[in-house]
Design brief:
It is a single chain. The chain is of the alpha/beta class and 447 residues long. The protein is built from twelve helices and 17 strands. The chain has two domains: 192 residues, Rossmann fold (3-Layer(aba) Sandwich), CATH 3.40.50.720; 196 residues, Dihydrodipicolinate Reductase, domain 2, CATH 3.30.360. 49% of the residues are buried. The N terminus is likely disordered.
């Protein structure tokens, strides 16, 4: 059963390499969704999670041509809801409902679709709850907290036949689509390697300690699918990314998702056969950060191709000249590409073509927004209406997400991983013990 499902993912991913106007053509066409909602009907949406990403959804929602109404702003923290309402009031003449419990959004039959921009541990459970309630889903990266959730989110999409867009928005870059099409057509010859990287200079974080739950925070709902524990300062805010594996997926899930997706797309590969990592915590060694802050990872594929990840979260030395991006190597040249465009080089390193993107989306900014997120959101709406095809369907995004999970698991078990590239399973019992997480009773998504 699992083998058949993973074979489906592999075939879907391979078939998605062909590029449409704004991205990959998924195996499930927009036509199959066209009966769900009339082509000109207003789409009613809710947003779950009002932290740093939700602001990127305002523009696609409020554009007049979108014909979309924001019905709910949902967050477990009262101050986040109130702040979001004030921000949205500057862009629209109506007021959405403010709620703390996502289940209230799902109970409203008026709601057609939801955006999920919560901490990572909520992404797949929230998406599955939404699909079960009959909603289409835009789920931010990472689309899953662990490999098991990769399986279940795709299974739910297949069962409920909903539009599920993953929020790796560089798939909506016109420039990225163009140059990857050219790479596939042989512009740099036979590709053999890609380097994906991310560099930041994040600072010291507090050591978590037992504290009173902040005013306005529903700590129980914040934990959601995660087993219950006492609140520690300042777990609920952005630093949940670095305080263990209950809520976050470290920098791999937080940022590597984007560039590894582009690298995998450019090389036209799926699951690797081997993954190893060199990783550790090297900055502010006495602070509260409990994950690696530096990682180098190798993903080797059965056809001999290689993806290398170079991530530095807290040392800002900029060895590549930019904070993030992907370099693709072929036997006749190479390409550097990021959210701002691409530069094409011949084999000797001479610039052949230099693209300057019109995108305003920052590569390192924590907040949401920018042309790519807007295009990604509009593509989501147009696919719901049957007028387009998803640029990042969940069955394609889930394969890229697995690279981040392999690297995290290799780090946690402190050894390389041998992988079955047909099924995606890891050939190691200790590593497979991390395939799935423990859930709070009643919260595990099940078909």
């Amino acid at each position: 059963m699992k083998s058949n499902r993973r074979t489906f993912i592999k075939k879907a991913s391979t078939g998605a390499i062909g590029i449409a106007a704004f991205g990959a053509i998924p195996s499930i066409s927009a036509k199959s969704y066209s009966k769900i909602l009339g082509a000109n009907d207003r789409i009613h949406v809710g947003i779950q999670g009002l932290g740093r990403r939700w602001g990127g959804f305002i523009e696609p929602i409020t554009q007049k041509d979108s014909n979309v109404e924001l019905v709910y702003l949902c967050d477990v923290m009262q101050s986040q809801r109130e702040k979001a309402a004030q921000t949205f009031a500057k862009k629209a003449s109506y007021k959405p409902h403010l709620v703390n419990d996502f289940r209230k959004v799902l109970d409203d039959k008026k709601v057609d679709a939801v955006f999920i921009a919560t901490p990572d541990h909520w992404h797949t459970p929230g998406a599955c709850m939404a699909m079960e309630a009959g909603k289409h889903v835009y789920v931010e990266k990472p689309c899953s907290h662990n490999p098991h959730e990769n399986e279940i989110i795709v299974d739910f999409q297949k069962k409920y036949n909903k539009v599920v867009q993953m929020g790796n928005q560089q798939r909506s870059s016109i420039e990225t689509n163009h140059i990857i099409r050219e790479i596939h057509n042989g512009i740099i010859g036979q590709t053999y390697k890609a380097i994906a990287f991310y560099i930041n200079s994040r600072g010291e974080v507090p050591v978590p300690k037992k504290a009173s739950i902040p005013d306005g925070l529903d700590w129980d709902l914040f934990q959601g699918p995660s087993p219950r524990k006492e609140y520690q300062y300042n777990t609920w805010d952005y630093n949940w990314h670095w305080y263990g594996w209950d809520f976050g997926t470290a920098e791999m899930g937080n940022n590597a998702t984007h560039e590894l997706d582009i690298a995998r797309w450019a090389l036209d590969v799926n699951y690797p056969v081997y993954t190893d990592v060199l990783a550790g915590k090297y900055q502010f060694v006495e602070d509260g950060w409990s994950m690696y802050d530096t990682m180098e990872a190798n993903f080797k594929f059965s056809n001999g191709k290689l993806i290398q990840w170079d991530g530095s979260s807290r040392n800002g030395y900029n060895k590549y000249g930019k904070g993030r991006g992907t370099i693709v190597y072929g036997d006749k040249g190479s390409v550097f590409l990021d959210r701002s465009g691409y530069t094409l080089y011949d084999r000797k390193g001479k610039v052949i073509e230099d693209s300057q993107s019109t995108s305003k989306e920052s590569g390192l900014a924590l907040g949401g927004g920018g042309n790519l997120t807007t295009r990604h959101g509009i593509n989501f709406f147009q696919t719901i209406r049957g007028k387009s095809k998803l640029t990042s369907s969940i069955e394609v995004g889930a394969v890229s997400q697995m690279l981040t999970h392999y690297a995290n698991i290799a780090y946690r078990v402190s050894k390389p991983l041998q992988i079955d590239d047909k099924t995606g399973e890891i050939k190691d019992q200790e590593a497979m013990a991390l395939w799935k997480r423990t859930y709070e009773p009643g919260w595990e998504p099940k078909l």
